[in-house]
Specification:
Number of strands: 23
Number of domains: 4
Helix content: 40-55%
Largest sheet: 7 strands, mixed
Distance between the termini: 52 Å
CATH architecture of the largest domain: 2-Layer Sandwich
Strand order of the largest sheet: 1-2-3-7-4-6-5
Radius of gyration: 28 Å
Length: 914
Amino acid sequence: MRSFLRSAQLSAVIAFVAFTAFSQQLPQGVQKVTAVEGITEYSLPNGLHVLLFPDQSKPKVTVNMTYLVGSRHEGYGETGMAHLLEHMLFKQTKDNRDVKKELSDHGADFNGSTSYDRTNYYETVVASDDNLKWALGLEADRMTGMRIEKGLLDTEMTVVRNEFEMGENSPGRILEQRVLEAAFSFHSYGRTTIGARSDIEHVPIDRLNAFYQKYYQPDDAILTVAGKFDEAKALAWIAEMFTKIPRPARKLEQPYTTEPTQDGERSVTLRRVGDNQMIMAFYHGPSGTDPDGAALDVLMGVLGATPSGRLYKALVDNKKAVGAGMDYDGMHDSGFIQAFVSLRKDQSIDEARDLLLKTIENVAAEPPSKDEVQRAKDRILKNIDLALTNSEGVGLSLSESAAAGDWRLIFLERDEIKKVTEQDVLRVAKQYLKSSNRTLGEFVPTTAPERVDIAAPIDPAVRLKGYTGGEGVSAGETFDTSAANIESRITRLKLSNGVKVVLLPKKTRGGTVVAQMVFRFGDEKSLFGKQQIATLTGSMLMRGSKLHTRQQIQDETDKLKAHLGVGGGLNSANASIETTEANLAGSLKLAAEILRQPTFPDAEFETLKGQRIAGVEGGKSDPQNLAFVSIGRHFAAEYKRGDPRYVSTPDETIEDLKKVTLADVKQFYQQFYGGAPGEIVVTGQFNKDEVAKLLEQLFADWKSPAPYQRILAPYRKVAPEDTKIETPDKQNSVLISAVLAKMSDEDPDYPAMVLANFMMGGTMSARLVNRIREKEGLSYGVQTIFSAPTKDDAAEFLTFTIAAPQNTPKAEVSLKDEIAKTAKGGFTAEEVAAAKAAWLQEKTVARSQDQGLAGLLLSRERWDRTLKFDDDLEKRVAALTPAQVSEAFRKYVDPAGLTIVKAGDFKKADVYKQ
């Protein structure tokens, strides 16, 4: 499926809203271009295109600026330049605006990303005229108005280089990069977006600035505004702010390199430290405007879906591999089709390779059936239908389709997928999945090459001529996300078995509804030694029930247009549902069936067990995994193996997994699983009386045979420790520090520590982030986390930093120094005031997300709390003084008491010598 339709690989998706035409005249020079399903496109005289689509159902607004420049536009010696500029546009404007500070001060959810064909920047803020004007003004300043200077580049270059180094730790990512390099002889799609290390380190500032001045112009940009806003006001502000930027005099030339037809199999072998084997196969495919795209999306479902896909059945079900999948990326120019297989060390890579190629390239011998095609279409269209109800990530998703040629392609492809037949799928399989069009891990010459000619990209204007789109998605109500309003709308009740239920009905976009539930069981004694048995039990639930096989469960969720997850852990079972009002009852019934009537199929158990072992093996050389295991074991050292609070080593986990039998899993389910005690939350568009009645029918008679008793985790004083872990051949290292504090979330100092954590590492303008990333350029990622329990008293303050191994000692010195300075000197009045405002806005935005709101209500209901707790917490945070925050940090974060763990290839870097 094309990248802009893949919900699994994108952090955001699009929304459609009902279009209301402006009754007044458009601003001078602004012209309406087109409108599809509520999204209206305008153009400005300087070439800027604007997409507006209001969504009154959520109190936030997203501003996204997409520049139609990516790694495709880079020449030799300037690889990674678009990505480097992405970072630079978060620095300072020519009139000295601090971009990251302003974003943090406004409590914005923000980011930027670079791809092959585009770069984009977005910020989501609480909906208000002031916030929207600020966001639009910021993007106007970032267009042509940034400081691209050597001093700023010097620190940001090292941050980007560290991001490059982070990617170097992943064998899968590097294998993909190497295969692309082999698959494309000339086209820039064969070069990674992040670029070559040498180009990142040595790019001349004048060349970078020239790139910026060439592409970051109004005639190469698309501005998107989505959310709760007044269209007329927004368009007037946009015209006022952006028409001041003139259309550049230069002629914008597009890359003209066309990849020649591949004329034989190509191969590449990657040899690096790692724990699992992997195979990748790439086939050249058509561009994002090609009519074959819809059929290829469906073909990817037939071959690559889990668990219904042919690759999964041939490789995973037959125990030849632990994972398999397939995808198609339709981009501006001719793209590619990708298949992957992951294996454990003890599985045959030769046998897996043969099965992979046979399954992919012999589709003609076993044409796709009507059921296979319909199943793939149902799943794709379900994901699209659910995506169309969510306006939060619209900018990112429209960025992808715009980069491919036109933002309306997303709608066109949805409509074309509905029309795909088995014959269409077979045709594209024959057309593109040929051995001569393949790049794999070996080279096999042939005397009779069979070539695949890829059609040139089609003009979007031709493809979309006369296209008007379908019906828009129903709009939701204007919903106030204050704690008080949410509480006024809630109904609380109990099922006959004592399960607590929270119902929050409201009109939502597309009639969506979210349900989450948790059921608890067992105690410290009864669960001793059962960690891996419990984990496998929970993971087996979705793999077969009394009435549905694993495949039938997936098919049913597709028919119900639902995202459904059911699982369990050591002392609880859970379910999560996202669907529409019409399908809520069916989704709840299916979740109840999976929870209450699992069958634990033998073949599925062996597959799952192998996957889990492979996953643990894959982390044995990963610095981040090893560092977190190490620090976890340090703080849990008093517990013996088998205790629910014990932290196992990877080898211990593998040993325990290998011992688990299917009989153990079935026995664990019978001994522990049941519905009470527990909590259920439903929020969104639904009939509360009908849902309450249905929940009683489904769960009221379900009780756990094993009484639940919370496993205590009390505070204990732990001596600090400094640990170094060597991970050979890993170019990125991890630095973690942590300290325990005696505190619960009811402690008087809790609000002060929440805000102190926010100022230390909770935003892009936080102290540690500003120093280690922004000023010193040592790290791509710096973060702090503070957590405090409700009933126990062991809180934790943790810092997480990545860096190149040679830079880790410097990052550690800076980390310790900044914490010590803060403990001694405290926080300033200015930063406390800014942090309070940003933190409070973040909380408001967070409650507008139905999944997050359901999770919040679920966690509060467990402890018989209402959102008054959150309202009180926000008031307490708002009332904090700098002295109170400083004193709390000083009290609970002792620089000398930090436990530190660092993992990386320090021997090669020649640092941390003994």
